[in-house]
Design brief:
The chain is 38% helix and 11% strand. With 232 residues, it is of the alpha+beta class. The strands form two sheets. It has a four-stranded antiparallel β-sheet, covered by helices on one side. The radius of gyration is 18 Å and the shape is globular. Bound molecules: zinc ion. The site of zinc ion (ZN) has 6 residues, from strand 4.
Length: 232
Amino acid sequence: MIMKSSLWKISEQEKKPILSLITKGKEEEKHNERFAIFSFEDMYNIFSDNEIAIFEKYLAFDSKELSKSLPFLGIKEPKNLVTIRNQHFTTDKLADVPPVQYLPQKDIDALAKLNEGMKKKLGKEVNVLYGYRSPARQVFLFFDILKRIFDFDFDKAIKRVFPPEFSEHASGVVQGIDFITQDGIKSTEFTQTPEYEWLIKNAEKCDFVESYPKNNVYGVVWESWHWKYIGN
Ligand SMILES: [Zn+2]
């Protein structure tokens, strides 16, 4: 079997600025709620030249080469972005849940309607774990996951965290929302919740669809928590 050569074999030398940019970003995120919507300029203001060079090397790739099986969405500045604060949780075990999220007003309104229906039936609602993030924040997430989950395996990480133009969180064209239950259940465990069961039966009536269902055509991992509003 012929193995395809890696798109970017991360060198030992490159690991250093990747590690340091992750540390800097996480520190910034702790005290700056705008980090989720940072521009590249904002990001580069906190980075050293070596760290900027890492971002630039990533951005020099043709993103269509990186994400062949995914639909290309493009990049647009989202309109009427609203800050989401103080969501109601019934648990305080929320260590890695960011305090603030952002969504366009129309998606917030649509989600309120969806939650109204769910509350009537289940007595609970879903919260927003991740809404909109800027293209720069998306690239930052890529390096975070590259290190944290994939031990610097670029080819594997790029299949999990898409380039901004392909991401429903960062493109500003299609808006994905990652749900978390009010008792803090998220990610792969979301599949087991009554909230998910309700969504599967009822979300379509509110114009919400699961973006990457089980065995999806894109070959993307099943993300039961990731939905989008397709009304308007
Ligand atoms: Zn998502």
